[in-house]
Amino acid sequence: MILERSALSLILPILIGGGISLVILTGMIPKSEVNFDELALGENNAVVFSQVDGAGIHCQNFIDATTCFDGYRASSKEDVILLLGNSQIHAINQKKHDDKTAVPILHRKFKENAKHFLTFSQPNASLQEHYLFFEYLITQLPVSDLVLPVVFDDMRETGVRPELSDAFNNALVSESLKKTSVGRILIANHNSNDSAGNEMSALKGTTQEGAEELLNTGLESIWHIWEGRAELRSTLYVAMYRFRNWIFGVNPSSVRKLIPAHYALNQQSLEAILASANNNNISVLLYVVPIRNDVKIPYDIKEYENFKQDIEKIARKYGVQFENFENIVPPEYWGEKNSTGLSDEQELDFMHFQAAGHRILANKIYRAFFNNENNRVK
Fold first, then answer.
1. Which residues contact 240 (CB under 8 A, 6 or more apart)?
2. Which residues contact 270 (CB under 8 A, 6 or more apart)?
3. 268 — phi, psi (to 5°)?
4. Residues contacting residue 57 through CB under 8 Å, at least 6 positions apart
5. Number of helices (H) and strands (E), helices first, in the chain?
6. What's the pLDDT at 30?
């Protein structure tokens, strides 16, 4: 009896702690869909995916691509000018009523030239993701021109998010990817991961794989916390990310160093995009994105200068138009955002500007599109 009580006294705290943890975890599961990629934008930045005359002209990825495809089909079937970007394209800092991004401005301008301007943008989009999605989009739309912003920060990103994975199922996309070394790497990485990004290749065809699928299906049907485990993982990741930033004093002004392996894959992806564009008779306007210049930028200056030179060199190699827009938005049109740590202090925003900045960017793209056209068209 004494032994049983002793064992119970050891186990009871674990059971109680486990029960409390399950209650807390269950409460942490979001009850609605949350885009965790956008959390870093903060409350000062409004996310805007525009429509014109009720038609979608700006989407993210497969989540809402049908909206933009339907919007194109409802138009007069002009050739498509495609812009692939990151959150700078779809966020407005300190948004006021009726403020617009550059996208609807450009859509209306190009409409006058019998062109359908269409945009897809994702937060922190890497060039690897742009490459994959570009190969898919040109199978769905008559793309005549590509506008491609290049972001130094996003050269640190790697891999493909699950929201783009459907592109791998397209036979034409798969065939195109297999022609490049970086495309084959993307396919191999995709085949080695499940839809939640988990390593699964070692389990293919095993009893364990079948048992885990059965277990997952059963738990999802009776326990919503298991069904929402991906969202929970994202929630915990964001909390840990902010805590890490607070502990180590990381903020938007901290210097972000280049990651050589990621940088190389993104460079290869850029070259693959431009080669594919040339092969498909698609003109390209390549530009370095605006960044605020009234304070020290959060990059290693030498690495950033080398990056710009690398991009311009690649542009020349493939005969496409290159523009440097890094200084086009004046300091007064940039803003701040909520802390990426645990404090309540506002932080400088180096990537997202106000509506006036979007108007400037739209005008620059539009003018550049018709300048030196012979250098842009292969």
1. none
2. 127, 131, 148, 150, 311, 314
3. -60, -35
4. 50, 51, 68, 71, 103, 104, 107, 117, 118, 119
5. 14, 12
6. 46
Q: How confident is the model at residue 68 (pLDDT cuts 50, 70, 90)?
A: very high
pTM of the model: 0.76
pLDDT of residue 2: 45
What is the domain count for the chain? 2
- Report which of 161, 209, 156, 155 is spatially closest to residue 189, judged by C-alpha positions: 161
Residues 72 and 216 in one domain: no
For the beta carbon of residue 126, count every other beta carbon within 10 angstroms.
23
One domain for residues 55 and 93: yes
Q: Is 92 helix (H, G, I), strand (E, B) or coil?
A: strand
Q: Which two tokens stand for residue 257?
A: 């160093």
Pairing type for strands 334-337 and 347-353 reads: antiparallel
**Measuring CA to CA, which residue among 289, 290, 307 is closest to residue 299?**
307
CA distance 251 to 256: 10
- pLDDT for res 327: 96
What order of strands is seen across the sheet that includes strand 79-85? 58-59, 115-121, 79-85, 143-150, 283-288, 321-324
Rounded Cα–Cα distance for residues 362 and 104 (Å):
9
- Residue 214 and residue 278 in one domain: no
Other beta carbons within 10 Å of 302: 9
23 lies in some domain: no
214 and 323 inside one domain? no
For residue 250, pLDDT beyond 70:
no
47 lies in a domain?
Answer: yes
Give pLDDT tens digits for 339-372.
Answer: 444 445 657 788 899 999 999 999 999 999 887 6
In this structure, the strands spanning 115-121 and 79-85 are parallel
Domain CATH for 339: 3.40.50.1110
The whole-angstrom separation of Cα 19 and Cα 356 is 52
Domain that holds residue 356: 32-191+228-376
For residue 360, the model assigns a pLDDT of 98
Q: Which two tokens stand for residue 89?
A: 């394209």
Same domain flag for 115 and 63:
yes
Tell me, yes or no, whether 279 lies in a domain.
Answer: yes
Name the helix (H) or strand (E) containing 208.
helix 207-222
Q: How large is the average pLDDT for residues 132-152?
A: 97
